[in-house]
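User: I need a structural model of Cysteine proteinase inhibitor 5-like from Cucumis melo var. makuwa for a docking pre-check later this week. Nothing fancy, just the predicted structure tokens so I can convert them on my end. Input:
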Amino acid sequence: MCSAVVGQYIPCSHPDDEQLHEIAEWAVKKYNEGLTLLRILDCEKQVVAGINWRLLLKCRHENIGENHYYQTVVYDKPWEHLRELVYFHRLYPHE
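Assistant: Understood. Predicted structure tokens for Cysteine proteinase inhibitor 5-like:
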């Protein structure tokens, strides 16, 4: 029998989930109003005293007309109405 280690990141079972899309949209808007979310490419979650969502995103930078890839971590504790952007940074060159 195999089980996840407490605090370990595990893959999301449904990366196209509506709630996850809302969290990704929130992170993009919190980071920069000039970005538009195009797609969630990968998702992992870590259960702590809430949930850390680690997302790989493809976004369009509207001001310069280029697509870029970003990694973000969002801490979410919905039962306390708490959401924090832990980090958000560009990973790869534009397309």
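Before docking, keep this in mind: The mean pLDDT is 90.
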